[in-house]
Fold this protein.
Amino acid sequence: MSLRRAVLAIAAKDLRIEWRHRTAFTSAIVFAVLVLVVFIFARDEGSVSLAALAPTVLWVMLALATVVTLNRAFLLEREHHALEGILLAPISPVALFWGKWLANLALVLVVELVAIPLWVLFFNITPDLRILGTGAVAILAAIGFTAPGTLFSAIAVRTRFAELLLPVLLLPFVIPPLFFAAQATVRLLEGAPVSDLIGWLRLLALYDIAFLALASILFPAVMDQ
Amino acid sequence: MSPASDAIDRVIRRGRAIMVAGLLGVAAVYVLSLGFTPPEASQGLAFKILYVHAPSAWAMETAFVMVGLTGALYLWLGDRRLDVFAEASATVGMVFGAILLLSGPIWGKTIWGAWWVWDPRLTFTLLLYLLFAGYFALRSALSDPVERARFGAVIGIMGTVLVPFIHLTVYLFRSQHPMPVLGRPPCPPDSPNCAPALPWVLLRPLLLSFVAFTTLYIGFVTTRYGIGLRRVEEESRDAG
């Protein structure tokens, strides 16, 4: 089986399972909305305006919702020793990484597609082109979150504390892309010219490429049984 | 006693000897910096914290880079001793990291007026520290030694690649941290704002403390490495 077909087969399998249950998707959306609400209640209404808080809340919400979504990627394979079945199939571990990553990315993007409009609604942001720009930044950030996330979820699932260990391992790796993305969003919402954003977007893209490459190289070492 | 355990005992003894030399070096740094070094002109006595703070940063970063390097070598060669070394180096890195994170705020309270500021280098150190705390959390959650070694190596390598990105992230904030005092070029004439290089009398304890802390790092790691080897030997003897 060619690498491309193997990758697509794994991704399609994961998304089909998710489509049947929709557990991870529903939980991640509800979780994202709850994060928004928590921020609103923890805010001092008199001193912090919604507009000032908006970019911060967006990135905290998206980062945490991504961690929640990634937990499912390999937990799914723990039932009935499904992972061993996949490893016995004549496909390379590299194909498994790219397939899992693609499914994770698709799922995170769908969560973002629902969460960002809700953020626009709750924070009274005028829906214009800036929101499309924020969406584009969110896609780049999602790649940066899911690349190390896919590798670490394969590691964390081998322990008894998968749900606890994944955020502990992943969050230090979420901080650089989150910082680049938040800086770009702040400038976008201020209506700054594109030249002010481009440096941050380049850094974000560099991070994405570096960690996608590294995670796919290291993944076979994690799967070796 | 088997020849293998004799060799392990030799490693531990050698580690202890280097450790003692390092501790004597640290004692010499204390004597020299507290007894024979004048207070710095602008920072006064608080400046002396630098003699503990800067070499701890150096030792911690060296320790963590070694975890990444030995991790990569482990994945390539599969020699369990490399993992034992990586774990030893990470443990020692955490100790120097703790010294760094404790001595920094003591200096900061005197000079900046606050225990903690979200300065790039502080943030960088904290993130690196938390990353390696996660490394130990993962190791303790795995019972199979081969998985522990392999996953530890993966986290170590990922962490080493993360370091330049964290550096970049934190330097894009405006830094309040003083600039390095070593390797600073001499001031050009007619530049009133340029800080002059550190005078020899203040530099002397710093150079000595870098030597002492490096020796201490080598001593600690060698000892921990020997103890780790002995544990592996006992495990395999119990299993056999």
